[in-house]
Amino acid sequence: DAPLYVRGGSIIPMLPPAALPSAGDDTAAATGGVQLVVALDAQGASGKAEGVIFVDDMTSLKTVEAGNYLTVAFAATGSKLNSTVTHAGAAGKTLSKIQSVEVWGVSTSVAKVMVTVAGKVTEVPKGQWTSAKGSLHVSGLMNVSMLQPFELAWE
């Protein structure tokens, strides 16, 4: 195992190893979701981070020229993570789910985690999130799509 060094203020989208495409199977990632690593730039309520994900269809050439891609900007401030869809081409359908979110630099204990999609607030069940030693891990988010804006908040 190699350590992962992440600069504070970064949000890094990652694919779990099982979802990485193999030779001859470019659609393997479509079955999984994206993991987001959010590294807040400061401890406390003022921590911030940002990042962007670019998703193409994993098979075509000239996806940018054809507009066949998805880009989503992520921004975290304090105790909230927000997404903004900046381009929604057809390619986003292949890899559009958020599988889990790991937030580093959380300075307070977490009692509740909520997800807001299309104005509907849903509390994430305690069994799907853990908080310890300055971090928050939220899993089981496969119903959260990057194709529309969402907010993940903790208190």
Could you give a short description of this structure?
By secondary structure, the protein is mainly β.
- Rounded to an integer, what's the Rg over CA atoms? 16 Å
The neighbouring-strand order within the major sheet is 3-4-5-11-7-8
The assigned structural class equals: mainly beta
The end-to-end distance, rounded to whole angstroms, is 33 Å
Instruction: Provide the helix percentage.
Output: under 10%
Strand content: 35-45%
Order of helices and strands: EEEHEEEEEEEE
Regions with little confidence, pLDDT below 50 for 5+ residues: none
Helix segment count? 1
Structure description:
The chain is an all-beta fold. Helix content is 3%, strand content 43%. It contains 1 helix and 11 strands. The strands form 2 sheets. It has a 6-stranded antiparallel sheet with strand order 3-4-5-11-7-8. The protein is globular and about 45 Å long. The chain starts with 9 loop residues before the first strand and ends with a strand.
